[in-house]
Amino acid sequence: MYTVVTGVVIRAVAVRDHDVMITLFTREKGKVGVAVRGARKQHHKYGAIAHVYAYGTFTLRTSGTVYALVHGELVQRWRTLTDDVWLLAYVATLIEQVDQLVADGDVLPVLFDQLIQAMAALDAGCDAAVICSLCTLHMLTYTGFAPSMHACVCCGASDDAAWSVRAGGVVCRACAPKVADAHAIAPSRIRLLRTMVRTPIASIGHIRLSAQTIRWLQRMLWQWLDVHTSMHARARAVLVQLLAIDEQPRGNERS
Ligand SMILES: [Zn+2]
After folding, report:
1. Three-class SS of residue 175?
2. Fold of the domain spanning 2-76
């Protein structure tokens, strides 16, 4: 029995002499494992599609507990995404999140569309930190880890004076002293989060953010993932190292 899915390769592992075992995040079936026979032979017709981050349509045949690839075609060939060390670090972070936050068996077509829009936006040169933060916020929403943005997480009051990652979102003025990591937050940042959660990634061109806001957003979301999920953030650690190197003062710059 054959089935056709649209998906992106989130893992690719060499097996035996010439084969590759890929894990796809698909629009139709969530995450699936697929064996691609002979993909590591030179000039194999499916060599390009058996690579991590490849986005394509895949015709699969059931083969015991996993699928086997019968036919595959790229939907889009990334222009810069897999050649640039920064873009690779960002896309690897997003893929790692999808891999670990989406449970086996969960079918999330809207999240799939957002991931593909994020990869396309990165490939087109949009601000990588903004795109990844927006995509991360969508991932949290669709996988059940979203922050509470409309009412105090402690008492339900509609007062958004403070923010607590540990408590799970907005905290009112009265409850803030009782929450260990609650801190005052600018109303503009709460409005930003509410806007972002409603914004498809393809429309991100309408949002303009300062470097300071982007940095806050990025770090807050990473802290959120650390507190609320059991992710092993290996790809993100590489990105954090790159960002730290980039932020170091350079010797040839005037102070
Ligand atoms: Zn409260």
Report:
1. coil
2. OB fold (Dihydrolipoamide Acetyltransferase, E2P) (2.40.50)
Q: Are strands 66-76 and 30-36 parallel, antiparallel or unpaired?
A: parallel
What's the pLDDT tens digit per position in 37-86? 888 887 778 878 899 999 999 999 986 778 999 999 999 999 999 899 99
Measured CA to CA, the distance from residue 76 to residue 55 in angstroms comes to: 6
Of all helices (H) and strands (E), which one includes residue 169? strand 169-171
3-state helix, strand, coil in the chain (%, to 5): 40, 25, 35
CA 61–ligand 1 middle distance (angstroms): 54
Q: What is the pTM of this model?
A: 0.92
Q: Which one, of 23, 51, 53, 49, lies nearest residue 35 by Cα?
A: 23
CATH assignment of 85-145+186-247, among 1.20.1440.120, 1.10.10.10, 3.50.70.10, 3.40.109.10: 1.20.1440.120
Q: What is the pLDDT of residues 7-21, one digit of tens each?
A: 999 999 999 888 999
> Which residue type, as a one-letter code, is found at position 214?
I
Ligand 1 centroid vs 168 CA: distance in angstroms?
A: 12
CA of 184 to the centre of ligand 1 (A): 13
